[in-house]
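Changelog note: in this version the structure field was regenerated for every chain. One regenerated record is shown below for reference.
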Amino acid sequence: MNGAAHYEKLKRPPIREKRIGGINAYYGKISDLIEEFESSGGVQRVRTYTQTLEDELTYAIRALLTLRGGVLVVHGPRGCAMAVFAAVSVLGRGRTYPCLARCYSTDLSEKDSIMGSEKKLRDAVRRACEEHRPKHIFILTTPVVAINNDDVISAAREMSEQLGVRILPVFTDGFKSRMPQTGSDYAFHAIFGMLRGARGGTAAGKESGTAASGGESRIPAGAESWRVSVAAVNTSAEDMDELIRMLQEAGIEAEPFFKAMNETDEKGGLVLPEAELFLCVGPEETGYFAECLNSDAAARALSVAPPVGLEGSR
């Protein structure tokens, strides 16, 4: 199986340790690490522990918060929901994170972590629907849910049918991968799943074979007249406004991807913004999304590094 159908069938994307050979932390001499990669390609330490300031949940929240008209339900203790504040505080003083979604916590107790807590999940989803009438709901799992074995998939499916709202789980339980950036992959995997069946037409250049696989694209002649949709994570509202301004100053019609993605089809799926090119800024967070989009006949995406430094700005 290949193409968009391959990504649609996946419960979650492959962890970065397997997909791109990612390493979260290394303790030792850099010369030993280089020698190891040159001789064997690197060995994953599968039974080790690392503690970082951020985790999968933080990165997933950071991506999904920018989705207009949505609700995030963090299924876990209230402390896990504090990842929302960690997600938006990354930019520092003087910067505003574009929070367009609402957040809820199921506030699981110690007893819930043992006996299960699907009732609290259903109550939180129902309350979110009553208070905000969202267009879509993402349920983000936590380590507690991985322990008590709540059936989040069945609960999401049943609640979606009852409430008439698209509900998708995002499996950020922290047990599969030790790399926090994997949370971005999980979030964009869920977004891509909601886009399935909500697209039409053929992106410019796709029919002539100008899009390459592996998240890369060759820009054909006339691209300066294209409409560009810019997807970026860890980007303040001020920086995004400046990026859009710079593109428009260069004569390119551009808009932020998440802000434009506020329409749903009759099945509750998100409608892909009308654009000839999706510019995914920052491969670390959006590279997997570019890969997903390029697998579909109705989209083309280009993954680019942020313009940092003289070389990156040319």
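Spot check on this record: The beta strands are 70-75, 102-105, 136-141, 166-170, 227-232, 253-256, 277-281, 301-304. Residues 118-132 form the longest helix (15 residues).
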